[in-house]
Design goal:
single chain, 24% helix, alpha/beta, 3 helices, three-stranded parallel sheet
């Protein structure tokens, strides 16, 4: 996450962690945003983590106000790279090394 902050993609205050599964009510009205809405996925790129479901769902969004940033490595790495090259709102950052120790 610090790498994304260093690149100026978002500030610490804009982070919100969403569990692997989140049951929400569907939005019935369209929301208007004054800035880009960034969705961040960091994890193993495999079927168990649902990265393919996230990408397929993201591709249904027909708005330039949303960006999907993906960090990680795994068996679906080539798929994620291909999708990122095809969609200008999907960014693949590769494997993100943990440079801080808690």
């Amino acid at each position: 996450m610090e790498e994304l902050q260093d690149e100026g993609l978002c500030k610490r205050s804009c982070f919100k962690v969403i569990p692997l599964y989140c049951k929400t009510k569907p939005q019935l009205e369209e929301k208007k945003f004054s800035h880009k809405f960034i969705i961040l996925f960091i994890g193993t790129l495999d079927d168990n983590k649902g990265i393919d479901i996230l990408i397929n769902s993201f591709n249904e969004i027909k708005s330039d106000f949303f960006e999907l940033h993906i960090g990680g490595s795994g068996e679906l790495k080539e798929y994620v790279e291909k999708v990122a090259n095809e969609n200008q709102n999907i960014y693949y950052h590769g494997y993100l090394y943990n440079t801080t120790k808690d």
